[in-house]
Amino acid sequence: MMKLSKKEIQEKIANLSDWTYNENAIHTKIEFENFKEAFSFMTRVAFEAEAQAHHPEWTNVYNQVEVSLATHDAGGVTQKDFQLAKTIDQLLGEE
Amino acid sequence: MMKLSKKEIQEKIANLSDWTYNENAIHTKIEFENFKEAFSFMTRVAFEAEAQAHHPEWTNVYNQVEVSLATHDAGGVTQKDFQLAKTIDQLLGEE
């Protein structure tokens, strides 16, 4: 899996909902109504991440979830990250 | 809920498994076999946290889970944090 160039990342990120690129990863921050909603969302993402064999770095504090995606083996952002980001956006769209 | 003194925290933390106190919170870091095990554990904690109406700040990267507990309203660590920490230790003991 090849690391994407900055130009490629900027093009692809434009198709996502609310993601930013910095420090060699793509990031989003999502706010939910409460902890239960936040963790339920994480659970749905967890199953998809496992299925894609690609896992997020994520932090949860009460109703907030911060997600960072990177491909450590490639030393940056790859198509796998955009695939999982797209899945996350789709799950959010279903909320 | 009253903020505990440093002395009280140090006494209580001695009864826990592998927690440290710094920056006005208590912290632990747990390593699991893989993502599935890590997230399954988080799910069990999530239900207990919700039941205790007290929620962790936590980060997961693949098989690792870092947990920080503090009581924001009290500006430090309270009995509620030790209650949840003890629950987490008990769940780990059942693994």
Automatic annotation (TrEMBL), chains A, B:
The EC designation for this entry is 4.2.1.96
| Annotated keywords | Lyase
Q: Which reaction does this chain catalyze?
A: (4aS,6R)-4a-hydroxy-L-erythro-5,6,7,8-tetrahydrobiopterin = (6R)-L-erythro-6,7-dihydrobiopterin + H2O
Q: Name one GO biological process term.
A: tetrahydrobiopterin biosynthetic process
Identify the domain of life.
Bacteria
For this protein, the record's SUPFAM superfamilies field holds: PCD-like
Q: What class of enzyme is it?
A: lyase
Cited Pfam families: Pterin_4a
Q: Which GO terms describe its molecular function?
A: 4-alpha-hydroxytetrahydrobiopterin dehydratase activity
Task: Extract the CDD domains matched here.
Answer: PCD_DCoH_subfamily_b (cd00914)
Family matches, as PANTHER family: PTERIN-4-ALPHA-CARBINOLAMINE DEHYDRATASE
The record's similarity note reads: Belongs to the pterin-4-alpha-carbinolamine dehydratase family.
Name of the protein described by the UniProt record: Putative pterin-4-alpha-carbinolamine dehydratase
